[in-house]
Batch of 3 targets.
Target 1
Amino acid sequence: MQQVDELVAGLEVRDRSAIARAITLVESTRAADITAAAQLLDAISGVTGDATRVGISGVPGVGKSTFIDSLGVYLVDEGHHVAVLAVDPSSVRSGGSVLGDKTRMERLASREETFIRPSPNAGTLGGVTRSTRAAMIVLEAAGYDTILVETVGVGQSEVAVSGMVDSFLLLALARTGDQLQGIKRGILELVDVIAVNKADGDHAAEARIAARELSGALRLFSYDDPDAWKVPVLTSSGLEGVGIPEIWQALRDHREHLEESGQIDQLRGEQRALWLAEEIEERLVQDFYQRPAIAAELPELQKRVRRGDISVLAAADKLLGH
Ligand SMILES: Nc1nc2c(ncn2[C@@H]2O[C@H](COP(=O)(O)OP(=O)(O)OP(=O)(O)O)[C@@H](O)[C@H]2O)c(=O)[nH]1
Ligand SMILES: [Mg+2]
């Protein structure tokens, strides 16, 4: 297909307009586009998969975007090509995306070697996840060797992002009271590296103490397996660029740990299987709502469900019976 060939050629020379068009194509849920998107992904499958994929999370305002700006510039200076993607669950409801905003990544955005993409606004978290996975593949094919995915720390989206990256960095703050309460237990299971951020000015010493305490507390979780990865707790200031090389090194060490233990292939295999399940779910739901019979009948049934004239289960049965 000519369109696909053109896009593949454009990706090879890292042409920005081709990258943008390729991402739009793989994000599309239109039946006609899905065929072309599948051809594109097949065509580039040989050149993707080697990039370092890192998820970066933390509560709103912890300094994720500022940190990514510093880390990105550091990596570009080291000769890397860096892509930044965002997964923002709030964009699903608000219709706008607040993450990945270039204003907090001004230095990085001005560098030729980077591609920054705000969160897609795709109706559901599953839709946002699907788009981000596909965009990641396109960007890898275009030669971006490091993919950073920003996501806000509200649980669901962190689970989604951990299902598409190799390593997961959590930015935390000192002064969250009990350090372990500040970080939700479930999230700790996803995390590979922790940095106590905003470790600058008057807060530098406090951050170091918090990091030491947190590190000690994590050891209490007792790693039964002596070969298990031990989550390092470091300090950083995205604003002043402090701790960036050390955190990058910790992320590299984690990736090396995955490679040496043979876990990386298994991890990526599982992630592809998960993607397949998500792809099926997204498409089934899309197909369902696009059916003319559903579009015709749904508004009336919604009204009746609201009024309580019909039970939810009976309404679902009627619709799903088509
Ligand atoms: N002191 C200090 N302030 C910082 C640092 N990093 C970010 N800030 C400030 O904290 C605020 C939030 O920074 P962002 O980088 O937008 O934080 P974020 O986590 O991306 O925020 P959301 O995307 O809204 O969740 C801004 O006012 C920044 O200037 C830091 O390392 N030190
Ligand atoms: Mg941000």
Target 2
Amino acid sequence: MKDGTRAIHAGRRPHDFSGVVNPPVMHASTILFPTLEALRGSRRMRSGDGHTYGVHGTTTTFALEEAIRALEGGYRTRLQCSGLAACTLPLLAYLGAGDHLLMLDSVYGPVRAFCEGMLKRMGVETTYYDPLIGTGIAEMMRPNTKVVWVESPGSWTFEVQDIPAIAEVAHAHGATVVMDNTWASPLYFKPFEHGVDVSVQAVTKYIAGHSDLVMGSVSCTEEAYPAMQRAQQETGICPSPDDVFLAMRGIRTIHARLPRHWESGLKVAEWLMGRDEVAQVMHPALPHDRGHALWKRDFLGASSLFGFVLAPPMCNDAALSAMLDSMRLHGMGFSWGGFESLLIPVDPPSIRSATRWPRPDVAEGQVMRIHVGLEDVDDIIADLSDGFDRARATF
Ligand SMILES: Cc1ncc(COP(=O)(O)O)c(C=O)c1O
């Protein structure tokens, strides 16, 4: 089966539910057992193994978990209440006092905050590494390194990582490789084919696709699953069934939406490259991009989140406000992956510590993060063009 077919059919069993196409939305805390024996049997069941209590999942959650697993791969997927919770759960599952974590320097900012806050309080030490390190990661491994975290491309600065090379080194040292795979979605990067043990999705983004819910998922190999499952049971993290229902609607069309995001994103990136107001575009699907060769080798497509650096005359608040405050289509907001376009300024140095920004191959200047939505791409470009004109009027 191809992904487009999996996205439509995985996790659905209409004939178990009178032929109804979508699985029922089960609102459950209490689940009743018909006999004392069944009640006692449920105490031996683990979270996700069947219907025991609302927190541990119902038909609704299991259906979306199966649909994500069918697309992303791995042995088992469990849903979390947000993308951030999906990031923190594996860190809680695989790390304990005295352990060491290797974290890429361009990790999604709130994960860094978790490492510097809760993980530090737990006695876990984090070292940040250059996302472009590749096999050089070997020099950073310590005997107590238990987790190597990857995210490709990295948040805000879009470095593509050599995941197979990093995974090979991590495995040789007995460490678990956890990946934030949200950028590519389960369609465009298959983490388990590249040595990843645990893959995180912020379902909030492209899977949900409609900017109307927050959710996360953790998928893992069979070996990695028991520790993750235990952490899930111990923390009690779970999503709401109504949100699962909405996310299920999202996943049924992800294969129809993502190619459009990819195509429009690339068109906008190419257009931006031709503008005087832009010093550099950071999009791995562009041939000049430093991550292009790895992207081409490992990815099956590109989503529509990328960065660009503004040229010097644009890098002040007057020009930025003139551009951003009056955009007709591009909203300013912290998420992405929905149907609508977004544009925000970001400040990479504020969330990195191991590597200098800008890197030697990147221009100096204000970095912008754009999410290209599903509007007509000509209208998206016209909105950006008008924004540049307003900014220019301030020079
Ligand atoms: C790369 C990445 N991972 C994880 C998350 C967290 O997702 P959520 O907003 O659902 O907590 C985000 C959110 O912006 C993200 O950009």
Target 3
Amino acid sequence: MSLIFRPLFEKFSSTYTYLLADFESKEAIIIDAVQETKQRDIGLIEELGLTLKYIIETHVHADHITSSCPLKERFSDAKIVLGEANSVACADILIKEGDILAFGKYKVMAMSTPGHTDGCMSYVVDGKVFTGDALLIRSCGRCDFQGGSADKLFDSIQSLFALPDEAAVYPAHDYGGRTVSSIWEEKAFNEMIGGGVDKAEFVSRVNAMNLSLPAKIHVAVPANQVCGANIISDG
Ligand SMILES: [Fe+2]
């Protein structure tokens, strides 16, 4: 065994949290951890005897509150990582396109993929890409708040589509129970941008999404700008 890879699910916001670790060194990263499931995640990290190095966010979320700060309180050597466009004071590392983090023998390569929000990042690890809300399975993130831009998201998804076809796509959410896709599948079948859709058509599709605001947006965005500090919850 070499890579420990544990996809985890938070049911209230349909969020995926990903725990990855190097089996030999036990150094670990966690991507998009959620308040409601922090005890589960802390318990798993402790049970497996992992050393958490990085607490990574794909973006400042609007639909749930991160558990970055509580995780850092428990694992004090871990560093909170957010995209540089977020300028969030609680981040230890503001990461940018092409930056690389290491855990054990594995590398995390950061890609700037704005559009859903202006500070969205995707992360490539060991043939997998963690796309946040930029590229979802057969869909993509909305672009109507937090500096969102369908124009930018089109370009970001094109950069994701330049990854190898076999790269496995792990999004921040799926509302239909799907867990993983691949770049070739999304290039072919994504309902917003697959099959060679051009930018003008993509922008009009995104603008036609017409979604209601996430129920927690007015709580979640300010809470996430302080990395979920001082949240009282049962989780
Ligand atoms: Fe989001």
